[in-house]
Amino acid sequence: MILYxxxxxxxxxxxxxxxxxxxxLGELIPRSHPLDHHFALTTIFEIMDVAARADLKADxxxxxxxxxxxxxxxxxxxxxxxAALDGVVAQLDRCFGTLSSQVGKTGHLLTENEWLMGxxxxxxxPGGTCGFDLPSYYAWQHRPATERQAALQEWxxxxxxxxxxxxxxxKLLRDSGMPQKVAxxxxxxxxxLPQGRSFQLLRLRIDPALGLVPEISGNRLxxxxxxxxxxxxxxxxxxxxDAVFELTLCA
Length: 251
Known about the structure:
This protein is α+β, with helices and mostly antiparallel strands. It has 8 helices and 8 strands, in the order βααααααααβββββββ. The protein has helices at residues 10-28, 34-51, 56-72, 82-100, 114-123, 135-140, 145-157, 160-175, and strands at 2-7, 180-184, 188-192, 201-206, 212-218, 222-230, 236-238, 243-250. A hairpin with a 5-residue loop joins strand 6 and strand 7 (236-238). Helix 2 (34-51) runs parallel beside helix 7, helix 3 (56-72) packs antiparallel against helix 4 (82-100) and helix 3 (56-72) packs across helix 8 (160-175). It starts with a strand and ends with a strand. The relative contact order is 0.16.
């Protein structure tokens, strides 16, 4: 099954972008080829760009506090394990503590590294990190893989407080939804959202054997899914057949 996710607000959209970049970084650092480490470094710069939003840290801390308040409401419920509840609250407390104690924006410490910032200023230019433009960076790429990995892990470590918080908040959000099977008649699906509930994320799983791509749109009142079929030339055209997929709304 292919999983598609659709955020209902800008905050969750930012969290998903950061998660995507952080997971990519986690895939690239353990590799040994200099090209992988080049893209690991440019990924760190992308994370810094996304995390540079002034209110991001405040939003994450606010969401952690909100999740703690929600979980405290489950105390005394016989259907909820107190030990499991305590474990999640402890994770939230740990994330809150490490993130709130970090001075400045995420990646702030890296901006004080002139060598890294020199690479960052060239990375946005097509071909701007060639050996004749940045000879010291070209030399670094010829250092042993273990040395490059150690440097990347050190630089990525400055992103860890934000990464841990984003991972945990998105996990709790995804766990809040209940999957349901739905049918799209002639490739179209619409569902009114219940009033009084504020959904933040839509998750859609569809069988890749169907050869369909969902185009998702939504607001606080309704969600809409239009299924498209990909042509051999990779164009999309509207599907006119009935199809089934799994839909999860997360609040």
